[in-house]
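Q: Hi! Curious about what Integrase p58-like C-terminal domain-containing protein looks like structurally. Here's the sequence.
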Amino acid sequence: MMNLKDYPQQISKGEPIAYRSAVHESTGKTPASIVFGAELRLPIDLISDRPKKEEGVNNYISHLQDRLQLTHAEVRHKMRIESDRMKTRYDLRANTGGFQVGEKVWLYNPKRTKGKSPKLQKSWEGPYTVVTRLNDVVYRIQKNPQAKMKIVHIDRLTPYQEPHPNEGVT
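A: Let's find out. The predicted structure is below.
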């Protein structure tokens, strides 16, 4: 098992070549092919590949420029597509309708207690009641009439649903 304190030294021993020669989902290319215009030659390539036919320096430079221009155009196109896809996914979850005054909501507050697994700790608190809407994305909420009010962004709120009366009964 690797010690995390030694990670910077460990990563310098081989992980960069693995990273640079792996195809990335967002670009559809390897970082090496984007930067250098060719794939990295790995030790295994010495065994399995035949040597490439040599070409003149001028031809090599001309072909390299063409490859890089084509690769960069493809990557820009793929990145636009991926950006649109990510925006669509974000918009599906984005809370654009907002909340009404008096509506009950959950508040996302991921405070962590040392020594406990973060997965076993509660991240959502509530229910809170929306007291006022300060603007399109900022709300003043309160847990109960005696509690201090909190001002929070809409991204930290989600609608509260009352538990079903038979929930938890077997």
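A: A fun detail: Residues 104-159 form a domain with the SH3 type barrels. fold (CATH 2.30.30.140).
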